[in-house]
């Protein structure tokens, strides 16, 4: 029973057990063949049987029907026409054969069953089947299977013949064919048994030399003979041989030529099996080297190798004894990188798919020399330099390039290992050396950077910035990055480092000669210690004021220390706010004269040499005696008191004024410029003196012209009436020949009278009566002025008619 039939049975069982009754029947086609259809329907309630009818739609053929029991839901209807459209009706009927429900479906039967005419095998993995084509078929199914069912394979083809693939070599297969249309596939045709041919030998070829090819293969099952043929590419001459071996050698072939080898196997039935073709090229001829030379490949040096082309060569391999190789499809390639001073033995081998040729005859080549190194410089003396290097193998000559950092360049050609050149101070020289041979120049070697010592400053100028500091200036020199200025005096060394061409050396020992040298330095070479030194003496040491001695009020003697070498001049300065006095000496003291009074001075000294001046000594104060007042005046304000005034005196703080007579001394001590002095005796000559005293107690004795006090005021002044309207003034004389004046002052008139010296009366005529008079009698001063401090007496002078009447004393009155 076929596979499809079992499927239908299992489907019917499954459907029958799973269907449930419905009031309406449905129908569908399960499968078709050329002359039958398998129909499937649903159960209908109350149906006792089902009738299936197939009616041709396109012909007048009689209908075919089949009837099934109540429990059936699938069944086949037979005796149909191939490739024909049918209307399939399913009817559910009760026991009285009444139709309870019906349904229809249309379907086409499969095409007719084809017939196999012939099955042949020309390839071990396929079988070609020729069959009759049937009407209505759209395609065909070819089926191949083995007798033991270990292999089953179907493939669809469009027409005859068709080929079944994926078969095994030398194997029997049962072949059948089925037609296909829209309805499905037909039943298989009657089977045909056929055997595939043996497989082809899998040829492997190799060329062991440039005139032989060896072909080998693995034994093929069921083969009793092999046929191997060879033909040169582009030729129609073929060589064929039969063998039962599994290898064949073809010799006497052309070098570098492609040959195609085909192999067939024969089975015991003398059927030729598959063929297998392999193409093999013989190895190329031996190349011939033509040229070796060094060339640059980018930034690297390479050895260019050239050769004559070889027949059939697809590629060439150049090989060096130094382990370098290069490949090319043309007649040249470059071995890179090559090093300097190398001895290369070079061969070239031609290569194609057949293998390599025998290497060419070896050629030797020596590459360019190595760059000289290490480089070193010797400077035998300033300005004479030599660059030296070690000898380099395979070198004929050397060229040294010496370039100065300002762009100046010189070249030296030599066969020795050194070159001399002029090297100036303060420059950097870049040096490199090339070696030359027949192979060319060495690559650039190391560049030696050599810097000469910086140059010495020539215009060093040293000046005394201050008594303890030397300022050194110079022009910047080539090659110097920093300057070390050194000042040496005995064991004392003072250093200054700076990048500027100026330096100040401080805190130096005074009055000492220093050896000063400016040493230029740079980071590369260090310092140039060959520069000449310069001697510069520092300023003299500072003297000290030891003592200031007052010679008189306007002169002093100043003594001082002398800490410097002999020949040093010392200058002493006495300085006030508005004037300066000086003296010089090479000894230990000097005098300063004509100092103004009342001044405060600062006394200091400096030492002077041709180098300069020392620091001023510490100063000490000096105060001259205060000045005496330029003007001095004594004025008597009362008989016993005077007012003394004077002008301001410079430097004076207080004034002590004295009036001295044999009768005693009057003194006044004041801060002011005036003083009232009492206890003055009238009519006495006084000596006038003053002491001007400074704030610090310095004193000046000042002497002025003497002072004489006025005569004493008279006492007992009386006024008497005389005849003829005359009044007499009387007073008691103090003795001596003093001059007196009497004065009467009334409201309407004034009167005076003066007696001769020594007199004590005088008369005033023509007195106006009826008035009150103030009467005063006072001595006269030396200049004739009347003393103003004598007391007045008041008298009333009445009239008696037109004449003076009574004179009445009314009392004393002080001066206003």
UniProtKB/TrEMBL annotation:
This protein's record includes keyword Signal: yes
CDD domains named among the record's database cross-references: FN3 (cd00063)
Keywords per UniProt: Signal
Signal peptide, first to last residue: 1-22
Protein name stated in the entry: Fibronectin type III domain containing 7
InterPro entries, alphabetized: FN3_dom, FN3_sf, Ig-like_fold
SMART domains in UniProt: FN3
Fibronectin type-III domain location: 113-199, 371-455, 542-627
Keyword Protease among record annotations: no
PANTHER family membership: FIBRONECTIN TYPE III DOMAIN-CONTAINING PROTEIN 7 (PTHR47135:SF1)
């Amino acid at each position: 029973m076929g596979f499809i039939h079992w499927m239908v049975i299992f489907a019917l069982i499954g459907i029958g057990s799973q269907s449930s009754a419905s009031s309406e029947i449905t129908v569908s086609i399960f499968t078709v063949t050329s002359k039958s259809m398998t129909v499937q329907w649903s159960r209908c309630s109350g149906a006792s049987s089902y009738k299936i009818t197939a009616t041709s739609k396109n012909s007048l053929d009689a209908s075919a029907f089949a009837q099934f029991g109540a429990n059936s839901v699938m069944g086949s209807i037979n005796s149909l026409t191939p490739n024909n459209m049918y209307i399939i009706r399913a009817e559910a009927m009760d026991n009285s054969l009444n139709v309870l429900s019906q349904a229809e479906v249309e379907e086409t039967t499969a095409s007719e069953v084809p017939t196999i005419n012939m099955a042949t095998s020309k390839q071990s993995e396929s079988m070609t089947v020729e069959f009759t084509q049937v009407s209505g078929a759209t395609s065909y199914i070819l089926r191949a299977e083995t007798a033991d069912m270990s292999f089953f394979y179907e493939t669809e083809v469009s027409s005859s013949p068709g080929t079944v693939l994926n078969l095994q070599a030398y194997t029997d297969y049962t072949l059948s064919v089925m037609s296909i249309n829209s309805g499905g596939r037909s039943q298989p045709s009657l089977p045909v048994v056929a055997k595939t041919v043996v497989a082809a030998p899998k040829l492997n070829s190799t060329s062991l030399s440039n005139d032989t090819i060896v072909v080998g293969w693995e034994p093929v099952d069921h083969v009793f003979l092999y046929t191997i043929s060879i033909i040169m590419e582009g030729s129609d001459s073929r060589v064929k041989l039969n063998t039962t071996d599994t290898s064949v050698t073809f010799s006497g072939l052309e070098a570098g030529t492609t040959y195609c080898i085909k192999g067939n196997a024969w089975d015991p039935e003398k059927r030729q099996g598959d063929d297998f073709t392999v193409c093999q090229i013989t190895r190329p001829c031996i190349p011939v080297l033509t040229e070796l030379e060094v060339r640059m490949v980018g930034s690297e040096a390479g050895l260019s190798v050239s050769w004559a082309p070889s027949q059939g060569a697809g590629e060439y391999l150049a090989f060096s004894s130094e382990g370098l190789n290069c490949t090319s499809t043309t007649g040249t390639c470059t071995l890179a990188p090559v090093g300097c001073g190398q001895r290369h033995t070079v061969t070239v081998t031609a290569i194609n798919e057949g293998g390599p040729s025998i290497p060419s005859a070896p050629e030797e080549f020596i590459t360019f020399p190595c760059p000289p190194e290490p480089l070193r410089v010797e400077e035998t003396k300033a300005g004479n330099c030599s660059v030296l290097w070690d000898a380099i193998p395979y070198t004929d000559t050397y060229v040294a390039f010496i370039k100065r950092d300002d762009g100046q360049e010189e070249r030296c050609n030599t066969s020795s290992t050194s070159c001399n050149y002029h090297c100036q101070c303060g420059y950097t020289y870049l040096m490199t050396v090339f070696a030359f041979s027949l192979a060319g120049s060495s690559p650039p070697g190391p560049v030696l950077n050599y810097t000469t010592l910086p140059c010495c400053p020539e215009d060093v100028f040293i000046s005394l910035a201050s008594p303890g500091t030397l300022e050194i200036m110079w022009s910047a020199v080539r090659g110097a990055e920093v300057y070390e200025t050194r000042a040496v005096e005995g064991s004392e060394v003072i250093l200054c480092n700076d990048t500027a061409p100026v330096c100040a050396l401080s805190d130096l020992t005074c009055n000492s000669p220093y050896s000063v040298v400016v040493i230029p330095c740079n980071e590369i070479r260090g310092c140039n210690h060959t520069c000449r030194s310069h001697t510069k003496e520092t300023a003299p040491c500072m003297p000290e004021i030891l003592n200031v001695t007052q010679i008189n009020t306007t002169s002093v003697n100043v003594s001082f220390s002398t800490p410097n070498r002999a020949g040093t001049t010392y200058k002493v300065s006495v300085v006030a706010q508005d004037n300066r006095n000086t003296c010089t000496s090479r000894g230990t003291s000097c005098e300063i004269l004509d100092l103004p009074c009342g001044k405060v001075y600062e006394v200091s000294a400096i030492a002077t040499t041709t180098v300069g001046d020392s620091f001023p000594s510490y100063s000490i104060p000096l105060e001259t005696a205060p000045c005496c007042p330029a003007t001095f005046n004594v004025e008597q304000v009362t008989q016993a008191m005077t007012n003394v005034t004077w002008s301001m005196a410079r430097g004076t703080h207080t004034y002590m004024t004295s009036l001295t007579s044999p009768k005693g001394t009057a003194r006044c001590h004041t801060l002011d410029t005036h003083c009232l002095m009492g206890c003055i005796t009238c009519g006495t000559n006084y000596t006038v003196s003053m002491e001007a005293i400074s704030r610090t107690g310095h004193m000046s004795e000042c002497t002025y012209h003497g002072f004489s006090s006025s005569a004493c005021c008279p006492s007992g002044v009386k006024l008497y009436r005389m005849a003829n309207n005359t009044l007499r003034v009387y007073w008691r004389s103090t003795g001596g020949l003093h001059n007196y004046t009497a004065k009467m002052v009334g409201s309407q008139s004034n009167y005076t009278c003066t007696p001769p010296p020594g007199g004590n009366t005088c008369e005033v005529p023509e007195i106006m009566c009826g008035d009150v008079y103030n009467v005063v009698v006072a001595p006269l001063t030396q200049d004739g002025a009347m003393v103003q401090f004598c007391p007045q007496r008041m008298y009333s002078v009445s009239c008696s008619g037109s004449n003076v009447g009574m004179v009445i004393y009314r009392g004393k009155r002080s001066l206003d």
